[in-house]
Known about the structure:
By secondary structure, the protein is an all-alpha fold. It has one domain. Helix content is 48%, strand content 0%. The chain is built from six helices and no strands. Helix 1 packs across helix 6.
Amino acid sequence: xxxxxxxxxxxxxxxxxxxxxxxxxxxxxxxxxxxxxxxxxxxxxxxxxxxxxxxxxxxxxxxxxxxxxxxxxxxxxxxxxxxxxxxxxxxxxxxxxxxxxxxxxxxxx
Length: 109
C-alpha cells in the first residue's frame, strides 16, 4: 500500500516485517539520506552527483528504475515493470526484493 500524505500509519508499514538491515536500506532509500552520489554531493562528500553510468544523478529512483549499469541485476528481481512506489512503499515481499537488489548491486546505501 502506498499511503497518501497524512494517512501514513507507522504501525501498519510493511517495513516492520523486515530484518533490521533491510529496514535500514528501505528507510535510507525512502528519505534519500543514503550513500548515493546525489546525497553525498549535497553533504560535500562527493565531487559530483551523477551516477557512473553518466546518464543522470545517482538517486534512489535512478538506481531502482533506470540505471543501465544495473539493468541485468534489476531484471533478476523484477521481471515485470514495477513502480518505484511499490519498491519502496509496497508490501513486505516487494520491500524485501528491493533490499536484496541493493545488496546484490554492491552499492553502499
